[in-house]
UniProtKB/TrEMBL annotation:
<keyword id="KW-0010">Activator</keyword>
<keyword id="KW-0963">Cytoplasm</keyword>
<dbReference type="GO" id="GO:0003677">
    <property type="term" value="F:DNA binding"/>
</dbReference>
<dbReference type="GO" id="GO:0000156">
    <property type="term" value="F:phosphorelay response regulator activity"/>
</dbReference>
<dbReference type="InterPro" id="IPR046947">
    <property type="entry name" value="LytR-like"/>
</dbReference>
<protein>
    <submittedName>
        <fullName>Possible orphan response regulator</fullName>
    </submittedName>
</protein>
<keyword id="KW-0902">Two-component regulatory system</keyword>
<dbReference type="InterPro" id="IPR007492">
    <property type="entry name" value="LytTR_DNA-bd_dom"/>
</dbReference>
<dbReference type="Pfam" id="PF04397">
    <property type="entry name" value="LytTR"/>
</dbReference>
Length: 251
């Protein structure tokens, strides 16, 4: 299901966009996970806890009366969530080149001054596109993590390891650049990609990013210095995988 975020500090425009989105979903019998409205950029940022093509952001870049700060904010969202769908609202046409310059990768730009019927049709068309994008591949070699709440994709080469979280039913994913928590189980993660390796009851690793196997301390050490435990019973199998991968690199 989709999570929708609106950044708009004009109360009338907030209400109009919110009611239009709700009516679009009612008309099409679509389900929406959440619809949140923010009047301040920093408040919206603090509520981004996931990433994926199920997250839709409607952003008014002029909210701070400084369009460049608005562009920088949109850029922050894009950096936090490379797969989110960003839609720019209420912006002058001469700003369009800057959207490309800041690499925001917006799906569309909406002019709120059009009549209500055309505005409704525009919003409906955008959500049709958003829903069609759910579950599609974003990266040539990415794994897709799906549950009832979210969908996101991670390039396989960036994955270090998965571990059980302190929060019940949650998994923590360690990548080269970040850590992500989401609802799932290691049993489900094992089925996502056969290249992943279950090295311990609490850990699943990407052997491609293993730098060293510490057999004395039962640790797997990754290229960035992070580590996780490995069961003694799994050391032999991982050592073979590790050696096979090194041979392929040399070839």
């Amino acid at each position: 299901m989709l999570s929708v975020f609106i950044l708009e500090n004009n109360f009338f425009k907030q209400s109009f966009l919110e009611s239009t989105i709700q009516e679009v979903f009612r008309k099409n019998s679509w389900k929406i996970r959440s619809l949140k409205i923010f009047g301040k950029p920093e408040k919206l940022l603090s509520h981004i806890s996931e990433r994926g093509s199920h997250q839709i952001f409607f952003l008014n870049l002029k909210i701070t009366n400084d369009v460049f700060k608005g562009l920088e904010f949109a850029q922050k969202i894009r950096n936090l969530d490379p797969y989110a769908i960003i839609i720019i609202i209420n912006i002058h046409q001469n700003i369009l080149p800057l959207i490309f310059q800041y690499k925001i990768s917006a799906l569309d730009v909406i002019n709120e001054d059009i009549n209500d019927h055309k505005f409704f049709e525009h919003i409906e068309s955008l959500f049709e596109t958003c829903i069609a994008r759910l579950g599609t591949s974003i990266h040539q070699d990415a794994i897709s993590i799906k549950n009832s709440l979210s969908v996101f994709q991670i390039p396989f080469k960036n994955i270090l390891f998965f571990e059980t979280s302190d929060i019940v039913h949650k998994i923590k994913l360690h990548t080269i650049t970040e850590k992500i928590e989401f609802y799932s189980s290691l049993k489900q993660i094992e089925k996502v990609d056969k290249r992943l390796f279950r090295c311990h009851k609490s850990f699943i690793i990407n052997p491609q990013n293993v730098k060293q196997i510490d057999k004395t301390n039962n640790l797997v050490i990754f290229d960035n210095g992070e580590n996780c435990f490995i069961s003694k019973l799994k050391i032999k199998d991982l050592t073979k995988k590790f050696d096979d991968l090194r041979k392929k690199v040399k070839e």
